[in-house]
TrEMBL record:
GO terms for molecular function: oxidoreductase activity, acting on NAD(P)H. This is Pyridine nucleotide-disulfide oxidoreductase. Residues 320-384 form the Reductase C-terminal domain. Residues 5-301 form the FAD/NAD(P)-binding domain. GO terms for cellular component: cytoplasm. Keywords: FAD, Flavoprotein, Oxidoreductase. Signal peptide: none annotated.
Length: 392
């Protein structure tokens, strides 16, 4: 009897890979190792409806609990993979168990980047990556409390919107000259900052954080200007880092994440990787990319499952992403880094518009604000060269 397929991680990509392995007809044993104590769940609501208590935990679950035993998927929660041994084709867990594998999939995702300032370990300083993080944050987030959010990216702004609704007094501090600076053009940044200001959230841009002050508990945020913002709670939202350590220690190639090819294969023929942790070659953008999105976790995991079974796949997606802030839905199709000019269409004042991004004459991305039709059309249009390429 051959060894199982072992999936390391129990998040979005892991769950999809298990589902897809069964859908592709794999009848062998599947073992899934997850270091959290929750069955695979979706993370986007953690900074949206779930944060505000508008959604219950069971609605986060990607599959009903009985799906896994019914499908013969052995999910081992609270179990961390601590060593990957490619030469022996085995994974070691923190409980000292050695599990042999026929094929392994690494789907370990990312973790919140630590805030690199003194005081970041004080009580009252949070990041939001897991259900348990949200539970801790919610327990401390009393109405009227002063919350300082460090980082004006998607997660920072989404939490600002919900915390504002929960009655907290919110300030966002962003080091770049504008919010969403790495992921959007000035029009979108201005719009997103304006939304926060209109709801009474303070937004400080081009402002660094020097220190978090307090004895045991955080009580203030000292800015690079020397000013101190009083704070009962601080949310660190300064990005994520891929969990590559297991792969790196096993000698797998790493390049901004675990390096995989278009078939989700790592540098070891029996080990695959998918989701936030993997970087892959994009023909569409002419370089290696690593995406942190639900779209990528699902689609790359589907590709990985096929590939693990020996099927031919060439994963080369049009990336897409969304963010909900107040009543605004922001949707992004494509990647906009490297854009040279933009065209804005629609009614910015009415909050329904889209921005098209071009590198030379080539469209590379579209950001839509409350304009789902433009988003869908953009996804199709951006995919057209890929479809032509595969037909050629
Ligand atoms: C607050 C928040 C909001 C988001 N909002 C959006 C959004 O609006 N739209 C969007 O497209 N994307 C959003 N994302 C991103 C999206 O959730 C991720 O891209 C997606 O979850 C990635 O899936 P994954 O399976 O690669 O990783 P994850 O879902 O993070 O799963 C990885 C799992 O592996 C576990 N693990 C790590 N190391 C080990 C180990 N050694 N042994 C065992 N288990 C291990 C981790 O604890 C985790 O449970 C959001 C993310 C967060 C945190």
């Amino acid at each position: 009897m051959s060894a199982p397929f072992v999936i390391i991680g129990a998040g979005q990509a892991a769950a999809q890979a298990a589902v897809s392995l069964r859908a592709e007809g794999y009848g062998g044993e599947i073992v899934m190792l997850g270091d959290e104590t929750h069955l695979p769940y979706q993370r986007p609501p953690l900074s949206k409806a779930f944060l505000a208590g508008e959604m219950s935990a069971d609605r986060l679950e990607l599959k009903a609990p009985n799906f896994y035993p019914d499908s013969g998927i052995d999910v081992r929660l609270g179990t961390r993979a601590v060593r990957l041994l490619p030469a022996e084709k085995a994974v070691e867990t923190d409980g000292g168990i050695r599990i042999p594998y026929e094929r392994a999939l690494i789907a370990t995702g990312t973790r919140a980047r630590a805030l690199p300032v003194p005081g970041a370990d004080l009580q009252g300083v949070f990041s939001i990556r897991t259900i348990d993080d949200v539970a801790r944050f919610r327990a401390a987030a009393q109405a009227g409390a002063k919350l300082v959010i460090v980082g004006g990216g998607y997660i920072g702004l989404e939490v600002a919107a919900k915390a504002n609704k929960m009655g907290l007094d919110v300030t966002v501090v962003e080091g770049q000259p504008r919010v969403l600076a790495r992921v959007a053009c000035e029009d979108i940044s201005r719009y997103a900052a304006g939304l926060q200001l209109a709801h009474g959230v303070r937004v400080l841009t081009a402002t660094g954080v020097a220190t978090l002050t307090g004895t045991d508990r955080v009580s203030g945020v000292e800015l690079s200007t020397g000013a101190v913002l009083p704070a009962d709670l601080v949310l660190s939202a300064v990005g994520a880092v891929p969990n590559v350590e297991l792969a790196a220690e096993a000698g797998l190639a790493i390049e901004n994440g675990i390096k995989v090819d278009a078939a989700a294969r790592t540098s070891d023929p029996c080990i695959f990787a998918a989701g936030d942790v993997a970087s892959f070659p994009s023909a569409l953008y002419g370089r290696r990319i690593r995406l942190e999105s639900v779209q990528n976790a699902i689609d790359q995991a589907k590709a990985a499952a096929k590939s693990m079974l020996g099927g031919a796949v060439a994963y080369d997606p049009v990336p897409w992403f969304w963010s909900d802030q107040y009543d605004t839905k922001l949707q992004i199709a494509g990647l906009l880094d490297g854009f040279e000019r933009t065209e804005t269409e629609g009614d910015v004042a009415a909050g329904r518009f889209c921005v098209r991004y071009f590198a030379g004459e080539r469209p590379i991305a579209v950001c839509s604000v409350n304009d789902p039709r433009s988003h869908m059309l953009a996804r199709r249009a951006l995919a057209a060269p890929l479809a032509q390429g595969s037909a050629a």
